């Protein structure tokens, strides 16, 4: 409560240092600690078509709008207004010649196997295959005795309820998160990175929580994003830590 008193909103406290927010979330103290903070939730019926269009005009892509204003984006998607609201936005499709060797290698570094890379980032994988760069890009994958897929992580895009769930290796560390920051223009705040016995199994459980924001397929790892409430995030943290203790 003393730590929370330094902040005027939950988002500010969540972004702050020290871990007080996550401790309060996991212990069920969040409402009590945040009682002095005003609610930012919009009343039912606030997001009309006109308001959604006006809000969308502040952003240059669906990805940016979804990350910055999840309430408006969700309503627009549900009501079938996305095309009208996003009419001014530019396409996120990569231009011809975008996938250079350097970009392919950087993109491949997020993955521990060729099948995973092909599934999650098919345009980069296809470009590397066509240009004969696969072996070079995949040199780090599948090494005997390696630590591939032994870490599960969750990060949150600052100022929103948008979270990314994924797996990586202890060897790569935060490298994949850094790449996603550069490619997607997001501001990741790490919730957890834990070494577990079966990171893929834990990831599958975590992806059952929350709602799919249905981001553009051009976004790196777009299928692994979820919108999580505080309660759902607390459940995700508990699942991950239980897996870590069992490892």
What is the percentage of strand-forming residues? 5-15%
Strand order in the sheet with the most strands: 3-1-2-4
Helix content: 40-55%
Name the overall outline. globular
Number of strands: 4
The unreliable regions are 143-147
Q: What structural class results from the helix and strand content?
A: alpha+beta
Average pLDDT confidence is 81
Helical run tally: 14
The largest sheet is: 4 strands, antiparallel
Tell me the Rg in angstroms.
19 Å
Taken together, the total number of domains comes to: 4
Which H/E pattern describes the elements? Answer: HHHHHHHHHHHEEHEHEH
How far apart are the first and last residues' alpha carbons, in Å? 33 Å
Characterization of this structure:
- The chain has 247 residues and is an alpha+beta fold.
- The protein has four domains: 4-33, no CATH class; 49-85, no CATH class; 101-137, no CATH class; 151-246.
- The protein is 45% helix and 10% strand.
- It contains 14 helices and four strands.
- The chain has helices spanning 10-15, 20-27, 30-33, 49-56, 62-68, 70-79, 82-85, 101-108, 114-120, 122-130, 134-137, 175-184, 199-206, 230-246, and strands at residues 151-157, 162-168, 188-195, 225-227.
- A four-stranded antiparallel sheet has the order 3-1-2-4, with helices on both faces.
- β1 and β2 form a beta hairpin.
- The longest helix has 17 residues, at 230-246.
- The radius of gyration is 19 Å and the shape is globular.
- It starts with 9 loop residues before the first helix and ends with a helix.
